[in-house]
Amino acid sequence: MASKTLAEVSQHKSSSSCWVIIQNKVYDVTEFLPEHPGGAEIILKYGGRDATGVYEPIHPPDALKKNLPASKHLGSLTQESIRVIDEQNDNREKTKDELRVEQARKKMPPLDRILSLADMEIVARQVLSYKALAYYSSAADDEFTNRENARAFLRFFFKPRVMRPVSFCDPSTTILGFRSSIPVFVSGAALAKLGHPDGEANITRGARQGDIIQMVSSNASLSYAEIAQAADPAQTLFFQLYKHKDDEIAVKRIQEVESLGYKALFLTVDAIVAGNRESDIRSPWVLEEQENGPLYFNQEEKKPEAGLNVFGTAGALVANDDRDMTWEKTIPWLRSITKLPVVVKGIQCVEDAVLAVEAGVDGILLSNHGGRQLEFSLPPMEVLYALRRERPDVFDRVEVYIDGGVQRGTDVVKALCLGAKAVGLGRPFLYAQSAYGTAGVSKLVEILQREILTAMRLLGASSIHELRPEMIQRVDWEPRRASKL
Amino acid sequence: MASKTLAEVSQHKSSSSCWVIIQNKVYDVTEFLPEHPGGAEIILKYGGRDATGVYEPIHPPDALKKNLPASKHLGSLTQESIRVIDEQNDNREKTKDELRVEQARKKMPPLDRILSLADMEIVARQVLSYKALAYYSSAADDEFTNRENARAFLRFFFKPRVMRPVSFCDPSTTILGFRSSIPVFVSGAALAKLGHPDGEANITRGARQGDIIQMVSSNASLSYAEIAQAADPAQTLFFQLYKHKDDEIAVKRIQEVESLGYKALFLTVDAIVAGNRESDIRSPWVLEEQENGPLYFNQEEKKPEAGLNVFGTAGALVANDDRDMTWEKTIPWLRSITKLPVVVKGIQCVEDAVLAVEAGVDGILLSNHGGRQLEFSLPPMEVLYALRRERPDVFDRVEVYIDGGVQRGTDVVKALCLGAKAVGLGRPFLYAQSAYGTAGVSKLVEILQREILTAMRLLGASSIHELRPEMIQRVDWEPRRASKL
Amino acid sequence: MASKTLAEVSQHKSSSSCWVIIQNKVYDVTEFLPEHPGGAEIILKYGGRDATGVYEPIHPPDALKKNLPASKHLGSLTQESIRVIDEQNDNREKTKDELRVEQARKKMPPLDRILSLADMEIVARQVLSYKALAYYSSAADDEFTNRENARAFLRFFFKPRVMRPVSFCDPSTTILGFRSSIPVFVSGAALAKLGHPDGEANITRGARQGDIIQMVSSNASLSYAEIAQAADPAQTLFFQLYKHKDDEIAVKRIQEVESLGYKALFLTVDAIVAGNRESDIRSPWVLEEQENGPLYFNQEEKKPEAGLNVFGTAGALVANDDRDMTWEKTIPWLRSITKLPVVVKGIQCVEDAVLAVEAGVDGILLSNHGGRQLEFSLPPMEVLYALRRERPDVFDRVEVYIDGGVQRGTDVVKALCLGAKAVGLGRPFLYAQSAYGTAGVSKLVEILQREILTAMRLLGASSIHELRPEMIQRVDWEPRRASKL
Amino acid sequence: MASKTLAEVSQHKSSSSCWVIIQNKVYDVTEFLPEHPGGAEIILKYGGRDATGVYEPIHPPDALKKNLPASKHLGSLTQESIRVIDEQNDNREKTKDELRVEQARKKMPPLDRILSLADMEIVARQVLSYKALAYYSSAADDEFTNRENARAFLRFFFKPRVMRPVSFCDPSTTILGFRSSIPVFVSGAALAKLGHPDGEANITRGARQGDIIQMVSSNASLSYAEIAQAADPAQTLFFQLYKHKDDEIAVKRIQEVESLGYKALFLTVDAIVAGNRESDIRSPWVLEEQENGPLYFNQEEKKPEAGLNVFGTAGALVANDDRDMTWEKTIPWLRSITKLPVVVKGIQCVEDAVLAVEAGVDGILLSNHGGRQLEFSLPPMEVLYALRRERPDVFDRVEVYIDGGVQRGTDVVKALCLGAKAVGLGRPFLYAQSAYGTAGVSKLVEILQREILTAMRLLGASSIHELRPEMIQRVDWEPRRASKL
Predict the structure, then answer these.
(1) Do D417 and D355 share a domain, yes or no?
(2) With contacts defined as CB-CB under 8 Å, which chain C residues touch D156?
(3) Any domain includes A284
(4) What CATH number does residue B69 fall under?
(5) A 203-242 residues with CB below 8 A of B?
(6) Number of H helices and number of E strands within chain A?
(7) pLDDT tens column, D255-274
(8) Could you tell me whether strands A265-268 and A237-241 are parallel, antiparallel, or unpaired per DSSP bridges?
(9) Arithmetic mean of pLDDT, B237-241
């Protein structure tokens, strides 16, 4: 195929013929336009020109290969065109947000001075691009659920036991039979490249260093293979499955990760449509206003950016997911196509926990998707507490995990007292890798390990088996954070 | 009748003879003075001169015709007098508040960027005149009840169900047999012209676009006929009835709306006297001080504006209402004069809900008038919850609605889980039409529809019949809004 | 007796001979020094000179007569000395606090614009001297109890009844058989002259205008006779009795008020020692620092003002009270010396309410002294609620009143729903008279009357007998005030 | 031994040979390096030079003697070297923090104006060095537990009794048979010299003046003998025992204090490892940044100060403590080596209170170490309340004390109502001695005595035996502090 020139590409920018340039290669995406989960408009905006900058941070490298037939790969740009693009990139004026991030990255504190997950988040919030922060931190509606997930832990106090030998104390456990140095895993969280060029691989390498298990999202920004390659051969990876509405595509995805050595499937059931994450939806406008000033009601000359939709990034990610899964149909189907253990991620009430057990899954992850989906879904810690009181038998029949709102080792220990086998964290790992890459992830595990160990010893427990429901009490008041004034 | 001159009119400005000019026509209101619900003083203040500016936004155009005999319609001004008035109006210096509103109207964001009811209210609060905002937003005493109406929803969390087919999801319902695209209606709210020159017609047209039902207030600032004309022939309108203490006048009002095609009567029972809405009462003083500086205790030369009373706008609106209604007398009387379905609006406890059912009404609207009447009336959501627990049979015998404090689709869905057939919103529609006219109202319905649909799907409900009490849990803590610091 | 000169008086300023000048008369207080409830030091500070300015606002005019034998009344100053004192007073530089008050008094809003008790308090806080405000507003320790008294009302919501005839509505009642236009009385509150030169007489005249009953404090700053004279002959006054530890003095006080026509005795039992009112104790230092700058640890030249004690103004007032009263002894003794009805003021739990009934009193006033005595005494509204649940029979056997924290007509109506016969207010009347004199007091009654009437009508009650426990519900959440940001 | 020169000493600054100068004496600490509880690095930082400034405030004078064999005491510096050190000290530029403290010390208010423990703390917070304040005030993790200890008291209200004779009122009691003027003792708190050069002796002398009992910490910054010498022969001292992991060393420590006349052992069981006190851990960095500016991620030239560890000061203090104590082993062992009464300090739940009783101890101190150890340990006041409800028999079998969060006399009285024999305070005494030395401590006792006496009288109790559980009620709401705006 002959190399293309920029001039040639620029002819193809309409819905009747739309080409885009990604990393100096040209693609004909005309037929893909109606299928693009993020909508056709955002592609058309970049039709006929270079889209690498916006494409890269939110797509794995194999996305084009998986979604476009080979015939639509139109080949490379000419050397001259590549030179022009490079020059344009070199000369492009940085946005205010990019300049802000640059400054913030220069002022990051040494990693040694990060004492807690909160410290890590503070740094990450400063060095993340506005868009990345909006995607990572946003939650549904007014973000009550997101805050309540964390606050729920505050209503649980310890009844510590003294005069027990704890000089030896072991916080390790297994999850689905796989060893973990502490009862903590990385819960699936998408688009790590938004925060750091190495993306999910930072988490993979940090998880190895800390000897914990990573659950990789279907919506990872690296390919599943790239992540598997970043892992040590003996390292355990789990896979967070968003089931495609087309069973065949779904099967292909499962077979891919199974062959790559992923060890379990966490079927996500709480995100069949996107939650209403307003900060994320609003972020393109905020950036636009930051550069060009506000847009007013009657302004004729300024038009809002095309391609915005009220479901934001999340909407694009789940656009093709299966909204009609059922216990009767989906679990047996999954069993029929894979031998991997199956965990249901997104159980939000006792009734569904019981149904999941009856459907024969290997584990359940009590989660409301970090408060990003249904606003006012009960906090997982409250669901765990209800499950312990109402159906303690469930803990004997499947492994139970929770995620959402975990900030401290004491949070983890509280969940374990109530019967959780392990506790997942999502955003904290995204923040850690965004700020400090692999070292940040490794540091995070180290902090949690230290906090868990301290809490266990002061509770009088020398192994996780000694963490018992009797050691915890739900109180009828709520501690308040110190006011910062 | 000979045309009048300004000079002639200006002779009549006392309680023995009082003329006023409204839209270039002259009226003798001497005999009407003692009957004016807003008091004689405010009319006397404008006696002998043009009162159009203060009259128009708070009276429907047929108010003069309904209240003044033809003999008191003294005819037009002379052309020269009309010219003088126009000139005066053109030359009148704008008040600080008018200038503020003008500026704010220029800076309204595009409607596309309004993502939530809160966004809409923020804009409306900026572009409304101080007086309109005071009337719309004010509530009784310290406005606890108003805030509690909204906060009550925060104490109800969902127990979402997963693995249910929801790709098809229908949020439509009927109210008294009339279709509504979502389980939401416009609850009666007075004086829309205060916020926008097109007044209630904005809501009528927006309701049609969104396919929901509007309840029109007895105290609308357009005539009932004008509103009916703004509606599509197939569109459903309900009427919020404030019963006049004079039965004959009350009958006339009912017959008028029945003949105009209104489809149901919502008899208002919680506003027999006006609540103590201090912000509204205070608003004329605030405006006066803004223009002329504060008034002090011992100032001789400055006198407070006449015509103020401690019951404010609300007091004027209900001055002639019936304070002696009873279940035994009023409902049968109403049935005797109309075939329209009758709903009682303003039920505030379980006991009265039961009495209403026994009185044979078609529906009850649990409402405390948006917190504008009795301070510390229980939030409707709490009354609904008590009704569900104590008298679930009521839901089988009449349709139950609530209004007050609704801000999100999840609020609507919570009420439906507990058995409400539909949920009313008042202030949000006033804000929407004030800011963006008909388009604002239509946008509001669109937002609610999207939020309701998302909540239903994430709850696992594909129709409103699948929303059940088991899906909701009242919690013993209270979520807090993020602090804005 | 020969007139004294300033020079002569100035010789007597030690504990061996101490003279003071009050309103141009000279008194020998040497023997009184150890008996002075406020301590000897404060008198010695003014020994040998004019003490009128500090004496007047906190002593009734007959205090000298009652406490000093005639032989210690040394007669008048010479005319020349009087001239010198007048000149000194005229030339005295005003303190910063006096100048602040002067300015604030000029900026008081017209009384018509006072819509609520909160409005009144805001004005009073601006125009009161620092010392007066500290005495009036202060409460025990960290003032939790004071705030909780008010917040307790917020936990009670109404279950309003509709469709009841209320065009006629009568809020009047009787207290111990004496008529009151509304179920509200002035609760005993000391030292009204601190806030206004006419002192308690403002309240007396305002109470007459509003047709309510005033309870006069033993520690009034006018004499009991002066207050009686300010009253209309038909007007009802009650007396708040602080029992002197010396029974004879106590009897004399009771006989005095009985002969002056006071109609009942409210025996105060919750203030046998002074509460720890830190703001009051601190106020002299604050004023001193305001004038002269702060006092530091090692400053030699500056010495703290003499006469301060850690019990403040309150300590002085109760220094001679009886700390050993008992049910067995005190009530029979009181009955033996007076025919007036006896109410016990300061009941703080159900057990003591029952003991009071058994001791045969005519009424009980549930009160914790406005939070000024024992910090963490339960709010009276909570005690009332407990009494209603645990011992409803008490309401049939004695009249029950409460005071403390009342700010709104709804507060009054809530207490009446639970069975209170009437509700007392103390501080609000002090604030009202301080700011606007008699007119302020009268305005306060008018506001309460309007608010009570509105609340009763909207509750569906046409008389206070229709206010029932079923109309009120204690809720498990707490409304919050709007943030002022 | 020949005197050493600075030049000679400076040769020994590595782990193979490390000398330090303390108060002009030279010590060879090479072999001690690995045993130093605070880590070897911090010593190496001062190797080969004068370490007096950092050593003194946190080590008792006999620490060197106890920990270093005589052969390692290398003798004095030469006079010339001493002169050089003195000169260096004289010329050393003060740090910003030292200058701040100097200024603050000049502005301390006179002690007479300290009315409450809060007043005292405010002064102390201003005059303490950053490091001392960080150590004294810090608590575990986010310091919820520390705040909750204090807030727990707010949920307990009084049901005061009136008409009881209280002119005579005696707040004195005994603790383990030893008299105390009020039911308050000084709870063990380490490192008083950080706040004041006289250290723990201030507390000893103040406790004597106030006639209360001091519990001396194993980690006192004066030697146990020095403290005993500061005491009056008749004065009672208790000893807070941190048991060394080496039983022989532990026995030696117990025998020492027994022979010095200490009267009881409070075995500390809640601090076997250090809590995560982030403010304390962070304090060296904050000071460093204050002097030299912030340290950034990629700075090459600046390196973080050596010797920091994530367990901070507390970690060093407990590094050698016994983490394997048990009821079966440790209590009998303790009984076998001492006749002193044994109290277990750090009981945090009812179950362990019962085990302690069964183990035959003389008393239990309900404590979570001032919130400095396990975050989310229940507040002692809540544990006391649970113990009263669930196991009231415990109060008859051992003496029960609590500490943590006490700020007011009412807090003390509340604990006594529930059955506590006495209440300990730690931080408040550290603050008092830091600010005002002995006089501050004495003042603190005086304030508490006054507050306890007032509370008892207003409660109707004339001795501590009349404080009963019926006088207290746990409420279901929480009082809020006044906002300071």
Answers:
(1) yes
(2) 376
(3) no
(4) 3.10.120.10
(5) none
(6) 20, 16
(7) 999 999 999 999 999 999 99
(8) parallel
(9) 97
Contacts of B327 in chain C (CB under 8 A): 163
Sheet strands (E) in D367-421: 399-403
The three-point CA angle C430-C431-C437 to 5° equals 80
Chains that touch B (3 or more CB pairs under 8 A): A, C
Residue C238 belongs to some domain of the structure: yes
Q: Which domain holds residue D458?
A: 117-276+313-474
What is the total count of domains within chain B?
3
- Domain closes at, from C57, C75, C91: C91
- Cα-only R_g, chain A: 24
Q: Whose structure tokens read 């100096």? A: A24
Radius of gyration of chain D (CA): 24
* DSSP classification of residue D278: H
Residues 6+ apart with CB under 8 A from B153: B381, B405, B406, B407, B408, B410, B411, B414
> Which residue among A130, A135, A242, A401 is the active-site one?
A242
Q: Is the pLDDT confidence value at A394 over 70?
A: yes
The answer on pLDDT for B485 being more than 50 is no
Pick from C273, C295, C382: CB nearest D458: C273
Helical axes A409-417 vs A144-154, angle rounded to 10°: 70
Q: Do B458 and B330 fall within a single domain? A: yes
| Single residue among B75, B91, B107 that ends a domain in this structure | B91
Distance from CA of B147 to the nearest CA of A (A): 16
> What is the Cα Rg of chain C in Å?
24
pLDDT(B483) > 70: no
Backbone angles phi, psi at C391, to 5 degrees: -135, 65
pLDDT in tens, A412-439: 999 999 999 999 999 999 999 999 999 9
CA distance A55 to chain D (A): 30
Best residue of C276, C326, C334, C391 to probe chain D, by most D CBs closer than 10 Å: C276
> Does A485 fall in a domain?
no
Residue D448 domain-assigned (yes or no)? yes
What pairing do the DSSP bridges indicate for beta strands B265-268 and D13-14? unpaired
Q: Give catalytic status of residue D270 as yes or no.
A: yes
SS3 category, A382: helix
Q: Enumerate residues 266 to 325 of chain A having a beta carbon within 8 A of any beta carbon in chain B.
A: 269-270, 272-276, 278, 281-282, 285, 294-299, 304, 308, 310, 323-325
Q: Is the dihedral of CA C293, C299, C304, C310 positive or negative?
A: positive
Same domain, B163 and B85: no
The two tokens of residue B292 are 């002329």
| Rounded Cα–Cα distance for residues A73 and A51 (Å) | 15
User: Residue B197 and residue C5: Cα distance in Å, rounded?
Assistant: 81
Choice among D270, D280, D352, D411 that is catalytic: D270
Nearest residue in B to A382, CA atom: B475
Among chain C residues, CA nearest to D105: C297
pLDDT at B40: 85
For residue D114, the Cα-to-chain-centroid distance in whole angstroms is: 22
Nearest-CB residue to C296 (from D109, D157, D161)? D109
Q: Is A242 a catalytic residue?
A: yes
Q: Are residues B301 and B413 in the same domain?
A: no
Burial class (CB in 10 A: 0-12, 13-18, 19+), C72: middle
Minimum distance, in Å, between the CA of residue B131 and any CA atom of chain A = 24
Mean local confidence (pLDDT), C59-67: 84
Active-site residue flag, B270: yes
Same domain, A267 and A145: yes
Read off φ and ψ for residue B192, nearest 5 degrees. -65, -25
How confident is the prediction for chain B on average, in pLDDT?
93
Option in B436, B454, B479 nearest A276 (CB): B454
> What value does the mean pLDDT take over residues D401-430?
98
Q: How far apart are alpha carbons A351 and A364 in whole angstroms?
A: 12
Q: Is D339 on the interface with C (CB under 8 A)?
A: no
